Amino acid sequence: MSKREPGYCLHKPSGQAYVNLGGKVIYLGEYDGPESHKAYNKIKSEWLVNRHSSKFRRTGLVTMAELFLAYLDHAEPYYGTDSTELANLKLAIKSVASLYSELSTADFGPLEFETVRNYWVTKQSGKRGNRTCSRQYCNVQMKRLVRIVKFGVAKGLVPPSVHQVLKCIDPLKRGRGSSPESAGVLPVTRTDVEATVRFLTPVVADMVRVQLLLGCRPGELVQLTPGMIDRSGDVWTITIVEHKTAYRGKARVIYAGPQVQAILLPYLLRGADDCLFSPVESEQQRRSAQHAARKTSMSCGNKPGSNIVNRERKKEPGLAFTSGTYARSIKAACLRAKVAAWAPNRLRHTRATEIRSQFGLEAASSVLGHSEIGVTQIYALADQERAVQVAKQIG
Fold it and tell me: Angle formed by the axes of helices 135-154 and 110-122, to 10°?
């Protein structure tokens, strides 16, 4: 959300300068005098840092809705408008706002917190409402709510006691409530991947192949540019600047072997900072495939570019994929392939499991970029076939 700077105004009857901050008028002293300009610059600086502060409000009470607006001002540039985290934050905010938007932040206590959590427990997720939210999902969303309240405390919008009380509420325990357990993220089978790829455009199909070979995250894949790739050695090195653990100061380097190199080579003929995989190219390929498969004779119906109806597209394809658009392309292809829908992050789990089976857990940890092997065990399933063979011999 943009912050428009408050104006330095003249109050003609009194000859004073003033500034209007969200309906609250603050007088600054003699118009065009040095003291009024000094006061204006000070107030403007404070307002730009935290325009939702009670100092700039007509009343001292801050509602939950105003807290959420202040947090979104912070979260949108911090996480990025296309990030999954921002989308999940908005879902959490939407639920609380539907119940307590007009409630003062000072009155949001344990009862309200547990009411919101119960809303998540009983809420039907999915377009058809055929399943309830899992226990893990409820707990994660409530953690996000506590994080928003903590932000409000730092900005002077929420009393510190509210955050202290909410931290004392235990999360939902396994087997202690009605919430179902999440099945977790499992690897997607090679059979399902191959069936899905047949219904993807060549660009998106190559994205799937590259991600499966590299074991990278979807967010890392969509941001790849030629400038990130060092092609001086037999094995290319790809340095990712913006990644999940970049804020911790950790580097993320991905190694691309011959198979990945063969796929990426045609995409390197562009600017150093241009994304390798372009939605514009993908859309052109989709339209070309539709045209090639048309059954109507060219002498009948519309020809390419001849449609006289001027219809504006809701959104033109951009120059770079996002994790969301990439996932939606795969989901649409799954429907056409008549396989169970899978998300691109499952390709990372598939690759981790394959590497662990062939080269061991440490190798899988290195490829995935994990600093702790315990994290890799979440991604890479144990080699069950090997365990079965051991049981047959010595069990």
Answer: 150
